[in-house]
Amino acid sequence: MLFGKEHVQRYQESDGAEGHDWNGTTVLILTTTGRSSGLPRSTPLIYRTSGDAYVVVASNGGAADHPQWYKNIQADPEVRVQVLGDRFTAQARTADREEKERLWPVMAATWPDYDAYQAKTDRDIPVVVLDRVS
């Protein structure tokens, strides 16, 4: 099973032929700018679409703290996204309460562990919307 840096590398090299379909769901590559280093940081994330936007969840496996990629988008919301061979710039934003109420069930149906992750943390797990810029 692909995971972490190997997942990113094989996905990027194969235009998603390896790594897009993963454990019964689909994955994109999100590249943020490290808030301390200024370096690009790429992360494979489960996604779904909502209209023209892509939706991901900052679950961090239900840990008490947000994942690093989410902290990076809080500092700089301009990101790069790769879905299969499609690479584009997007603006990342945290879904507001109404959007989250609509999107969470979609994401939890895609990856049921999201509900378990939320149950094990006091942190309100953010749903993130990626709006294509170019």
Q: Can you summarize this structure?
A:
Helices cover 29% and strands 35% of the residues. The protein is an alpha+beta fold and 134 residues long.
Low-confidence runs: none
Class per helix and strand makeup:
alpha+beta
User: What oligomeric arrangement do these chains adopt?
Assistant: single chain
Q: Per DSSP, what share of the residues sits in E-state strands of 2 or more residues?
A: 35-45%
Taking all Cα atoms into account, the compactness measure Rg is 14 Å
What fraction, in percent, of the residue positions are helical?
25-40%
Largest sheet: 8 strands, antiparallel
Q: Please, what is the average pLDDT?
A: 96
Distance between the termini: 32 Å
Order of helices and strands: HEEEEEHEEHHE
